[in-house]
């Protein structure tokens, strides 16, 4: 229920700046008087923005400064993903300063000191501040903690003071961006004509009968496509095939997995730990010290793995249970009994019918009526999960409305939380629940409980020994040394069927991962190196728990689009056009009813009927959502038949047999609000892209990092 439970931060570069600033601030030293946390062009050009060149030395200096802050405050250097975040923050800061900054200056947009105070300790607290100064015991934001922190600010280490200054700067930048976006958002609106068009598209209906000959009914082997035809199609459809600089590779992976000897040693170690855990005086401390993955000693049902949860009823205090397997991690538990918590935990599902705060009375009335109708259907025996998938309007819909576990700590909006935690047992709440987001049909799937379980858990991950890793590396090295050409590489794959070969197609220059390979930046950089050509074979790369040898099989250039860059897609489209010509020519010489035409045409011709088709969500039986065919059905007069025409997936002859116009409507507010909401969701992205385009942003970071 992300839309309800979490504070939605701005998408885009301002949010990235806040995120990294907040991280640097959070990992700082003691605050609140000793507490460790709140509560728990040229060759050296990295890029160009607004006509200004970003030199590598300047860029790296800023990266080094933030990296140093991170290291000082966390006591360790940043990992690969954290370094990537820092680089992104520095780059995004350049965009904010050089691209957005000019827009703000032109419009006279600023954030005053008074505004900043208001965001940190005033009446309009910024979500990032509110999130971090929330008391975990009450689940409520407490402004007094902010004031206490600021009073002690000058007693903090210099590095943490600087981190807070940077954090406040990011808040100001986020407010500036919000102001700028709101100016543009408020300048757009939906006219009555547009709203009427949306209303008609959703409510007017037609029934149609049609003959459909799908392209797949014509064998591909009977259609010959030449390169000249592909080139002609590409030349006349350039807008559909935008170029991108990429590399394609094949790679052989040599997975490093524990040997039988490694596994036997691991089990013996696990048995020893189980015996020692049984007699440990401080079992929670012993478990923590001997775990690869730390888990809390006191756990609610929401925090306990399903396999363990199913055994709780059979556990007795002091008993050792397990091992329980989760991937490569094995867990053993010592059960210490139960404890009552001050908070309750529940699991529930919901179906949200949108009616945002501020919507008109007519919109709310329509949404309430719809929600009550769905509730009545569920009470009558309809599946809650199926109805959620069909009618839910938030991100939980595809999961049958499942919200997972949550506590009564303010994580949910107040009206929703009060209704759920006032309910006893499991089942459907008898009435809909109204919140600022709309109307909810709610089902409690696991009853509320404030029971916490004492579980000292030792979690150990089985890993290969050094000798096992060395042996796999030896095999990978031998493969790379023996197969230094494309021909040898491919010959070895054919010869040795035990080798695992995978493909990475059209990998962009700045990628840090592809397929299921994370932290694969070194492979991507090698593929894009000036000395690496198509057909080059790499040395051995280590990637997490495997070794990899790669072969470059292809490359594309954004400025030089070739047929080979899109050969499969181009071939499919040209074949579709050629099949359509063949089918239309054959149908043109046949007359009679649709059934007679289908019979004379022969195999592949289908005659079907579709009822209550709408322009917005029309679906045909075999052809699916074919917009050309659906548009034709609405364009024909009742009783009229079309000539054969090409659709998305085949050739049609369409007959409209019934038309039901949209009823007259006096209030188009619902459709205006829906259009406004959808436009608002895209605004941040479009603004960001427009500003970058206007500033002619050139990002060359992939050549350096």
UniProtKB/TrEMBL annotation:
It is found in: Cell inner membrane. GO terms for molecular function: isomerase activity. Belongs to the PpiD chaperone family. Residues 346-446 form the PpiC domain. Gene3D superfamilies: 3.10.50.40. The chain crosses the membrane at residues 12-32. Its main location: membrane. It comes from the Bacteria. It is a single-pass type II membrane protein. This is Periplasmic chaperone PpiD. Keywords: Cell inner membrane, Cell membrane, Chaperone, Isomerase, Membrane, Rotamase, Transmembrane, Transmembrane helix.
